Structures are given as C-alpha cells and as structure tokens.
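Q: Given only this backbone (167 positions), what sequence would you predict?
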C-alpha cells in the first residue's frame, strides 16, 4: 500500500493530475464527541455539533479496525470529544496495537489517574498528547473553560511516574 501511495504521488507530480492508487494509511477515529469542558474554540464544548452526541462501542470500533487493518499504520483516537470519556479506550488502543497500528490520543488531561495511566501504557499507546494551554489556572481557564490546571499537572506527573514504574 505504501508503495502504491508513493507511485501515485510521483505520477501525480509528473502528470500534474491527482492520481490516487493506494488506500489511506492514516485514520482518525472519534471514541466520543462528548467532552467535560466548555472550550470556546471547540464545537463540542460550545454545543455547536450538528450531530448526535454519543460514545462509540468497542464492537463498532473493532469492525472498523478489521476493515482498515491491512493498510492502516497510524490511528488518531480523538477528534471533537474527550477520548477518556469512552470506557473502552484502553481496549481500543490494545486492539489497534494488536493489529500493528500505531495509536495516538489527545486529551485535556482531566482523567489520568494511576489506573488509567497503567491501562493505556499496558495497551501500547504510542503517543499521548495532553493539552495544557496555560501556565497557571488563570491563563489556562481562558481557553479550557471548566478545566482544572492542577488536575492536568497531576495527570502529567502520574503518567510519567507510571511509565517509569512499568519500565
């Protein structure tokens, strides 16, 4: 698949036409579009989503992974909602990793305790992005409405310490 993508790219450059002969190798999957914060720049936080709010089941996730696993190598497990509000997130990560798909999660950091940290590390999460948009509670809450700066700092320390502990 990767070679098909590269060949398609070079033919596109040579012919100056869009030629697509491979399948996508990277996907974004939204475990939930629900969030605990009310960030002013986010459609979920502002309540502006034009679709039903919900949480994706593990079975629906598994069915999608089974369809893309032969050509997908990278998976973003986030979009509009807070991924850790889906209780199946660790299982989703583990299933993607079992199918040789690198996984990334972006979070507002409010749900990282030792148990959650252990679960996502053991599941094989490849990349964790924690949005900490400020240097104090005052600057942080300008963007992360309803957020707790110290809780996010604590979560960051927990994930680091848990990773060290689990080696």
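A: Predicted residues:
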């Amino acid at each position: 698949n990767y070679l098909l993508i590269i060949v398609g790219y070079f033919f596109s450059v040579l012919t100056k036409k869009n030629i697509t002969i491979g399948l996508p190798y990277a996907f974004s999957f939204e475990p939930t579009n629900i969030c605990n914060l009310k960030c002013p720049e986010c459609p979920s936080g502002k309540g502006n989503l034009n679709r039903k709010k919900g949480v994706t089941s593990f079975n629906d996730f598994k069915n999608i992974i089974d369809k893309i696993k032969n050509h997908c190598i990278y998976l973003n497990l986030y979009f509009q909602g807070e991924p850790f509000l889906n209780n199946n997130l660790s299982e989703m990560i583990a299933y993607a990793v079992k199918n040789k798909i690198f996984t990334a999660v972006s979070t507002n950091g409010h749900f990282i305790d030792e148990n959650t940290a252990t679960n996502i590390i053991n599941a094989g999460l490849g990349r964790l992005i924690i949005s900490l948009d400020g240097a104090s509670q005052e600057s942080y809450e300008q963007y992360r409405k309803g957020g707790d700066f110290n809780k996010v700092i604590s979560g960051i320390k927990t994930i680091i310490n848990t990773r060290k502990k689990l080696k």
